[in-house]
Amino acid sequence: MKNIALLIAVAGVAILSGQTRMKYPEAPVTNQVDDYHGTKITDRYRELENADSAATRKWVEQENVLTTGYLAAASGREKIKRELTGLWDYEKFDRLSKVGGHYFYFHNTGLQNQFVLNVMDSLNGTPRVLIDPNTYRKDGTAALGATAPSWDGALYAYSVAQAGSDWGEWHVREVATGRDLADAIRWTKGGRVTWTADNKAFYYSRYPEPAASELLTAAALNEKVYLHRLGTGQAADRLVYERPEHENWSLNPVVMEGGRYLLFAIYSGVPGKNRLAFQDLREAKPKTVDLIAEETGGYDPIAIIGKTLYLNTNEGAPRGRVVAMDLEHPERARWKEVVAEQAETLEDVTMADGKLLLVYMKDAHTTAKLATLEGKAVSEVAMPGLGTAQFSGAHLNDKEVFYTFAGFTMPTALYRLDLTTGKSSVVKQSKVALDLSTFETTQVFYPSKDGTKVPMFLSYRKGIKRDGMNPTLLYAYGGFAISETPHFAPAVLEWMRMGGVYAVANLRGGSEYGEAWHQAGMRAK
Fold it and tell me: What residues form DSSP beta bridges with 361?
């Protein structure tokens, strides 16, 4: 987003002051020629790959002098800076969830570097700060990572990364007192914590401790799953699962609600695909059973009722479907399809209040509906507009689910969905010091060179004449199954306020239309 803000500032200055021709410094060049099996390729700018060379450093410094000199002398820059600062300085909310008798959500007063985790004892209660990562280090380089409340909401596990490191260290905080327990878990990278049913222990995945000299360079290999019991040192943690024959695999443990079953989502690095295994924790010595031993699709566990595992999968359905698997007979021939593949892409599924909450992506924006556990439609969930919703998790008996919603002209708001009525209501709304009703987002479709219709969002100030003459920022990204959905950004809002159009094209390579859309932007395509 900082890059977009800089581009908007530079483009805005050009709009306000007129473009001038600049003399750019000459990059260092060499006579480097590489011979690839008889084919010679010239690479004149190889020197720039050495970021520490004197020639590269000199060129970077000259480029910086050119850029900062141009911006400092350009008229309109300070005006844009003031307006951007004002737009960024607004109260923000994110990720509301209910666990036990507590409501957790993230809050930012305006220009705080990181969001603060607040907790309330009722939905309309008085919030109190539970975790403030802005206080970790004076230089602001410690960041809050993944989090995991216990099933009863009394304890809150959280990870902290220092100085931009990939390593995270987990701690456990008492929600009632705000005090940390003595427990500390190290050598995790992007992993998760999943609590046991009694809230006295949790499973987590970690890597071997690297040598001190390799702390920032050691490869992320040989991840293993351990069980940590509160009040004990990490050295006493019990190894519960590993795959030493596949050192590059990632292992993600998930205790399903009820606490009987521990699932392992296993990833080899292929986007959109994983394996599944499980342990029955009621057994004296739980053995690991493979449910899905080959990466033939992606499998996201939803819930287990009795011995039936509900899965959100793209196997046999590139846009996703819901299937039910008998844990005692996991053969595919015995799977039951609960929700068939739709025209839209199935993004997320939550089970609560005896229903399935099905979250879809339709033409790169969120839609949602409620269905019975047999897949019969109950009702549509009305969304506030063209935007992106992110739903929190829920327990099986919950009668409410919370979600965030944002769009190009709508800052993030927190919503409560009543699962009985299917109606949504605003819990907390971010407010910007600008009349957002003067802007709008529309969606158009354009033909690609092979005739495929590609969606594109256009956001601009209402009343603007769409004649192709407006300053326009076009953003597009198609790769790694990453979807480009509507989001709110103050820098984009400033661009629109200045009269610009912001366009986002949903290229193939993302997952806007499921796995087939992803595959259509890969390799030879």
Answer: 345, 366
Spell out the residues 6+ positions from residue 443 whose beta carbon is closer than 8 angstroms to its own: 363, 364, 365, 386, 455, 456, 457, 458
| CB atoms near residue 287 (< 10 Å) | 8
Q: How far apart are the first and last CA of the chain?
A: 28
Q: What is the dihedral of CA 339, 345, 350, 351, to 10 degrees?
A: -10
Q: Burial, 41: exposed, middle or buried (Cβ in 10 Å; 0-12, 13-18, 19+)?
A: exposed
CA gap 100, 102 in Å, rounded: 6
CB burial of residue 274 (10 Å; 0-12, 13-18, 19+): buried
pTM of the model: 0.89
Gap between the Cα atoms of 330 and 308, Å rounded: 10
Alpha-carbon distance 493 to 511, whole Å?
26
| Rounded Cα–Cα distance for residues 435 and 92 (Å) | 17
Q: What is the pLDDT of residues 482-492, one digit of tens each?
A: 999 999 999 99
Determine phi and psi for 5, rounding to 5 degrees: -65, -40
139: phi then psi, degrees, rounded to nearest 5: -85, 0
Nearest residue to 460 (alpha-carbon basis) of 496, 433, 427, 492: 496
Mind giving me the DSSP string for 211-223?
PGGGTTT------
CA 444 from chain centre, in angstroms, equals: 26
Contact 399, 418 (CB under 8 A): yes
The tens digit of pLDDT for each residue in 14-44 reads 544 445 678 999 999 999 999 999 999 999 9
- The residue behind tokens 């949903």 is 506
Element (H, E) at 16: helix 2-17
